[in-house]
From TrEMBL:
SUPFAM superfamilies: dUTPase-like (SSF51283). It catalyses: dUTP + H2O = dUMP + diphosphate + H(+). Residues 17-147 form the dUTPase-like domain. The lineage of its organism: Bacteria, Bacillati, Actinomycetota, Actinomycetes, Micrococcales. This is Deoxyuridine 5'-triphosphate nucleotidohydrolase. It is an enzyme of class 3 (hydrolase).
């Protein structure tokens, strides 16, 4: 297993749940678990508690991503993916799950892995107001300007 590069203080709000961990040594995301059981009906979303609170150091962010297996097999995703956990936030990490399947409900059992947490360094920008921006190769081309999207 690779050595951790940063220590994160974690408060377990539910001692029966596992501490977030990485399934494989090179994984970017640590598994987050459901604190409660529930059923997500087709098209339904729910705010699911994870039973943990963190103290991220200044200059870091926690990004909550969907689990690819849940998305592929069951259509379960995160509404605001990735969710942002700011360094100053000390409350319980919550995940807004959405069932995108049109026909099948999805049952979440307490302790299930529901999302993954990626810790990243962040930069804060100084926004400088200007009258014009320098030109670039892309210019003002937006959605579909590189040929990868068609509205038709």
């Amino acid at each position: 297993m690779s050595e951790p590069t940063i220590s994160i203080s974690i408060k377990m709000l539910d001692s029966e749940l596992p501490v977030p961990s990485y399934a494989h040594p090179s994984d970017a995301g640590a598994d987050l678990h459901a604190r409660t059981s529930l059923v997500l009906e087709p098209g339904q979303r729910a705010l699911v508690p994870t039973g943990i609170a963190l103290a991220l150091p200044h200059g870091y962010v926690g990004l909550v991503h969907p689990r690819s297996g849940l998305a592929t097999k069951h259509g379960i995703t995160i509404v605001n993916a990735p969710g942002t956990v700011d360094a100053g936030y000390r409350g319980e990490i919550m995940v807004t799950l959405l069932n995108t399947d049109r026909d099948q409900a999805f049952e979440i059992t307490r302790g299930d892995r529901i999302a993954q947490l990626v810790i990243q360094k962040v930069e804060q920008a100084a926004f400088v107001q200007v009258d014009s921006l320098e030109d670039s190769a892309r210019g003002t081309g937006g959605f579909g300007s590189t040929g990868g999207f068609s509205a038709n």
